[in-house]
Amino acid sequence: MTTLTSPPGGAAIRHPAPPATTGRTGTPRQGGTILAIPALVWYAVFMIGPVIAIFVIAALHWPGMLQPVSFAGLGNVRTVLDDPVFWDAVRNTAVQLAVALPIMIVCAYMLGYYVAQKPPGHRVIRYLLFIPGLVSTPAKAMVFYAALSPDGLVNGALDATGLGALTDAWLASPSTALACLIALDVWSGIGFTAVLFAARLDSVPDDLGEAAQLDGAGHWRTMWRVHFPVIRDYVGVVTMLQFLWTLFGSAQHVLLLTQGGPGSSSTTLSFLVYQKAFIAADLGYSQTVGVILFLAGLVGLLTIRRAFRQNY
């Protein structure tokens, strides 16, 4: 395309138009979609596929991997809902989440805030807080077993301080087995979560805290009234991650320490899925509980996301 200009008293001069340029407002390139295809295929096969398989197996009567399969329909649902062990697992999982999650998030946030203030030795403190995240699950379970066994460190300390009447078989008592598992969840997750909070709080401008302190706010008010609203959405993300880890990952702690006992006093939903699939060889029952666990996780994530969304 060309343009015509007329100088005063002269002939028109033809000027070539500048070449067309494609900026950010132009037609978007389509190469990104092609590059994403392998990741989308991987996600569909290894993420969406197993989720669909859970719902399919939940509708089957499948008494073992090499046994014949028949259609059960809603029979597995009725069997699960009529099983008192399932309701014990629901209660134990609810107690575990209601106790472990608030303690872990609140204490981890306070620890993270303290580390973010860069006290003397704060780098060493970060490493020390991260240590439980570097220890394998069997090793952590062995530490708690050594501390909570009948002749372990806790009972030994109680005897040494004249409180022998308080000694107990902590992991074998129906009243304390679940509490021991909750203590392990909190201990193994609080340090790693505190490091995450400290890293996020490091990005908050120092001017906010300094302005609050100039106005007379102490560390407690600055921590909860100034810094917490700024990273509220990040707190929600970390809470969702810990919620999922506690909901789905508690089976390994139960397996290593209590086997769900005594009775079903420490059986959780995630351990019930394992127990019915690999011990009782009832895959239909197991995956029915898996569907319930999946739906509970989905509802929990949506609830946490709504609770921690920013108000501005």
For the record, the count of structural domains works out to 1
The span between the termini is: 49 Å
Q: What's the tally of helices?
A: 12
Give the helix/strand class.
mainly alpha
What's the rounded overall pLDDT mean? 86
CATH superfamily: MetI-like
In the CATH classification, which architecture applies? Orthogonal Bundle
Major beta sheet summary: 2 strands, antiparallel
CATH class call: Mainly Alpha
Number of strands: 4
SSE series: EEHEEHHHHHHHHHHH
Which strand-content bin applies to the residues? Answer: under 5%
Q: In one word, what is the shape? A: globular
Sheet with the most strands: spatial strand order = 1-2
Notable traits:
single chain; 312 residues; MetI-like fold; 67% helix
Quick summary:
This is Transporter. With 312 residues, the protein is mainly alpha-helical. The chain has one domain (83-308): MetI-like (MetI-like fold).
